[in-house]
Amino acid sequence: MAYKGKYIPTNPHKYIGNHRNVTYRSLWERRFMVYCDTTDKVVKWASEEVIIKYISPIDKKWHKYYPDFYVESVNQQGNVKQYLVEIKPKKQTKKPKQPSRKSKSFIWESREYVKNMSKWEAAKRFCDLKGWEFKILTEDHVTL
């Protein structure tokens, strides 16, 4: 799902950051933006505004990870909960299956999987320190 565009919030007071510069990189992300923007229980949200540093196991260097969303929502008890949310195709959340011979696509998928696992482990640690939750949503969660 490779669609990209600008999203203009209908409730800009809920957006943290520059509400005139909100970019989606897939229709799933756009759908989640609409949800955050229009759902009453979401009180604040942002897109790619949080930065998490992590060491990539591929090159052993520090990199910056920008999770897709930061969300503050009110739960059933009336408490505000904070979340970092990543939206990915389900295929990218699972270890690639070893083909009969190594192809360029298998090598790329394997590198992406290792990189994503490193990012997500860093995000989980970051959230644990802040008392937030880290969630990965796929097409099973964000339907079009």
Summarize the structure.
Helices cover about 25% and strands about 25% of the residues.
Word description of this protein:
The chain is an alpha+beta fold. It has one domain: Trna Endonuclease, Chain: A, domain 1 (3-Layer(aba) Sandwich). It contains 2 helices and 8 strands, in the order E-E-H-E-E-E-E-E-H-E. The strands form 3 sheets. It has a 4-stranded mixed beta sheet with strand order 3-6-7-8. A two-stranded antiparallel sheet has the order 1-2. A two-stranded antiparallel sheet has the order 4-5. A hairpin with a 5-residue loop joins strand 6 (69-74) and strand 7 (80-87).
Give descriptors for this structure.
144 residues; alpha+beta; Trna Endonuclease, Chain: A, domain 1; four-stranded mixed beta sheet; two-stranded antiparallel ribbon; 8 strands
Give the structural class: alpha+beta
Distance between the termini: 11 Å
Q: If you consult CATH, what is the topology?
A: Trna Endonuclease, Chain: A, domain 1
Unreliable stretches (pLDDT < 50, length at least 5) are none
Q: What would the principal axes of the Cα set say about the shape?
A: globular
Rg value: 16 Å
Query: Quick check: average pLDDT?
Result: 92
**CATH first level:** Alpha Beta
> How are strands sequenced across the largest beta sheet?
3-6-7-8
The counted number of beta strands is: 8
Biggest β-sheet description: 4 strands, mixed
